[in-house]
């Protein structure tokens, strides 16, 4: 798997490169927005399978990395992108998910210290899945709950919803909550009914539908 990594902090970039290489990835590392965009649009032998992108990159140190990734996805629809951020930024999550194509992720930088979790996120996004940091999901849930949109959900349904929105399969949710897959399916059906979301057999579309609803 070929990974384009965009991170301007040398020590963090070097650590991520080593981690990715140790797990069989070929890494192309860049440290600024223009270089990132060029790497993501490469149509040759160095074309990426997935991008891991810091939101804030030179030259502006605002949202240069995110904007370069979004521009690359506009030119190459479906390009897998995993965004790294220091903070939970609602706007960044909204922009990343706006297209609805999937193959996207949003992780806080703290997560990259958990190697297996980070590598799993990279692989899931590369495979077309959606990965959202639990803290981002919690923030979305809190905002929605304040407006009364999920107040009808039971605590167990909220637990299922959080894991669902992280991109977890029914089997993974069942294992995490120590319940059966059939119980997860029943909770999921109840969630869709209460939130008025049309059920879907496609896990990625299911996650995007839930997140889109919670952002309203």
3D architecture notes:
There is one protein chain. The model has no long low-confidence stretch (mean pLDDT 87). A six-stranded parallel β-sheet has the order 2-1-3-4-5-6, sandwiched between helices. The radius of gyration is 17 Å and the shape is globular. It is of the alpha/beta class and 216 residues long. The chain is built from ten helices and six strands; from the N terminus they run E-H-E-H-E-H-E-H-E-H-E-H-H-H-H-H. The protein folds into two domains: 144 residues, Rossmann fold, CATH 3.40.50; 66 residues, Arc Repressor Mutant, subunit A. Keywords: DNA-binding, Phosphoprotein, Transcription, Transcription regulation. GO terms for molecular function: DNA binding. It comes from Streptomyces lydicamycinicus.
Number of strands: 6
The helix/strand series, from N terminus to C terminus, equals EHEHEHEHEHEHHHHH
What is the C-level CATH assignment of the largest domain? Alpha Beta
> What is the strand arrangement across the widest sheet?
2-1-3-4-5-6
Q: What is the compact description of this entry?
A:
With 216 residues, this protein is α/β, with parallel strands linked by helices.
